[in-house]
């Protein structure tokens, strides 16, 4: 097993003291931490969460009893309603959404396409613009460009600094009587900037448009209140802080006030009001179920339900509090150890405007990332020159974070500055 470096006593004592006071520390034992003995520090929870022990057990039980035991009868036992059932669990535990507005289905890209199309197709005459920022996650930008070409629309781009994110003032200056939809990431994937979702939503509504939030980098690490904020539409993935596993299904949120009016374009049989009738013509199901198209990914929802159960026990307030502590410690260690070695912090220092990860930048960080992986420290790299430090509040200890950044420091001490 790779061993952690010796880092002196001051910061080590601070990390260990934070662990001793951490109310979420006992939950670490519920993760399969010992399955990767070569990993000193896993700092990529903002890309892929660790698996829970319960997930392995529940998957085996599901295959052995529900799938093998019930066979096709599982659909009538309840699988058919899992998109809404698990969607409502998501809404209650992490989204701040009342029942009947969230479903689990498809990938983030597919659900994003469905919701954008539904929004622009329902827009009043003359509303032919979509507003988005230039540093939004690539899949969102690509989908918008494709829909704009399909529907003869214009994308109005807000230029944002990759070291920050979109602001209320920028949105106010960009929306107007031609705005059909504005869409942004709640937490910027590069910088970790936490947008003012409530403020931006209000500004877009004042202009007469709808708002779609991509919650992929915030759900499970940042408090969300979709209903209270007046959000119209939202999507997000479940494989990061929700621990749903590689390629786990995404979720879509359709506010109750828009149900029955906004219609998504992928009219599959599972989104039909009566799917088993299999008759001619398409009639959408009531409520958020109308967002479903094909057969629900039942097996893939099992790990997600395990993740939601742990977050529910922990409580999102405690999860967010620890996330802030972890990123604060990241900033402190970056200032003490890494800034003298030419590393810049390109994430907000104000926790109120920072999500669950911190991005550090130096020109040679692509090569440095490979060296870190070789030494058992696993962050990820994003252009230009950014290493993202993404500790997961449920599975990352303060000592693990300390040890990972100590390895980064030692790697940089052995390299000339670029």
UniProtKB/TrEMBL annotation:
Which family is it part of? Answer: Belongs to the kynureninase family.
The protein's name is Kynureninase
Q: Which GO terms describe its cellular component?
A: cytoplasm
Which coenzyme or cofactor does it need?
A: pyridoxal 5'-phosphate
Pathway given for this chain reads:
Amino-acid degradation; L-kynurenine degradation; L-alanine and anthranilate from L-kynurenine: step 1/1; Cofactor biosynthesis; NAD(+) biosynthesis; quinolinate from L-kynurenine: step 2/3
Does the record's keyword annotation contain Hydrolase? Answer: yes
Q: What is its EC number?
A: 3.7.1.3
Task: Report keywords, A-Z.
Answer: Hydrolase, Pyridine nucleotide biosynthesis, Pyridoxal phosphate
**What is catalyzed by this enzyme?**
L-kynurenine + H2O = anthranilate + L-alanine + H(+); 3-hydroxy-L-kynurenine + H2O = 3-hydroxyanthranilate + L-alanine + H(+)
Q: Describe the function of this protein.
A: Catalyzes the cleavage of L-kynurenine (L-Kyn) and L-3-hydroxykynurenine (L-3OHKyn) into anthranilic acid (AA) and 3-hydroxyanthranilic acid (3-OHAA), respectively.
Q: Name one GO biological process term.
A: L-tryptophan catabolic process to kynurenine
Originating organism = Cellulomonas aerilata
Identify which top EC class this enzyme belongs to. Answer: hydrolase
A molecular function GO annotation: pyridoxal phosphate binding
Give the record's subunit note: Homodimer.
Pfam families reported in the protein's UniProt record: KYNU_C
